[in-house]
Amino acid sequence: MVIDSKTMASVEEEALLGQDSEEENSELSDDELQEAFAAGLLKPGMNVLVDKPKKFANNVEGMKQCVADFRKDLPWVERLDLTNLPAANIISQAEEKASAPAAGELDADDDFQREMFFYRQAQATVLEALPLLNRHSIATKRPEDYFAEMAKSDQHMQKIRKKLISKQMIMERSEKAKKLREQRKFGKKVQIEVIQKRQQEKKAMMSAVKKYQKGMTDKLEFLEGDQKMNKESSQGSKKAVNKKGPSAKRKFKDQKFGFGGKKSGKKWNTKESYNDVSGFRAKIAHGKGGKKGKGGKQNKRPGKSVRKKMKNRS
Questions:
Q1: Where is the composition biased (Acidic residues) (predicted)?
Q2: Average pLDDT over the chain, rounded to whole?
Q3: What pLDDT is attached to residue 254?
Q4: Sequence spans of domains, the chain
């Protein structure tokens, strides 16, 4: 088949011209619509979208064919499906209560009834399935030496652990940094307060000095301001101590042992003790008393030389 190049070119030109004419027509139609809208010719309700009626198809043969394709004659071990009614409510039977509602009488809006129905149906399924599984030699209990492999490897868990530890360390560091910042702020605040107080004191002192220089006052109390403050503070602390009284420990000991009274100056003479001579003994006072031996003389220890001689004689 031979195609002339001239004919091909003419076909392309006609296609391009057709596109241009369509664009022009569309532009013209838009302009016309705008003019009609401005003139008030377009009104709501003139153009109404109408939905086409939906056609329902009931292809019974096709549905049966699909069901036949789905259905497979497999043994129960491969399917593991059971369809049964819920188990009997033993508690209600034991307590002789009214029987539970059947599936048709069940109130779907009642959460308790609905969940109990599901629970009893699952219970009936288990009671029916266990004998079937045992009959087909399918194990239903996990052996004692069963080892299940973890879903995540140990290396992955180690990575997670390291990440958690690093996060914890970062949190602790941030908390420490916050505390340090707060302490610095507090320290700066205290420092600023101290500086302001010193400036106020200095300002007050300078004003007092100026007043003294001008002859407005004759007092020089501003020179002893710090000493006065120290004295007042010490006196205030002493008064507070005196007002406080004895401590709890002192009170407990006084209550337990009694107040001992004055300890110092017990041997000092008083007027009564000076005049009391009932305990005076003349013999003891003048050295005439004491223990005496057989000859009536006072026993005296022999001297060192005499004791040595006595020792040599023996």
A1: 11-30
A2: 76
A3: 80
A4: 58-143, 150-218
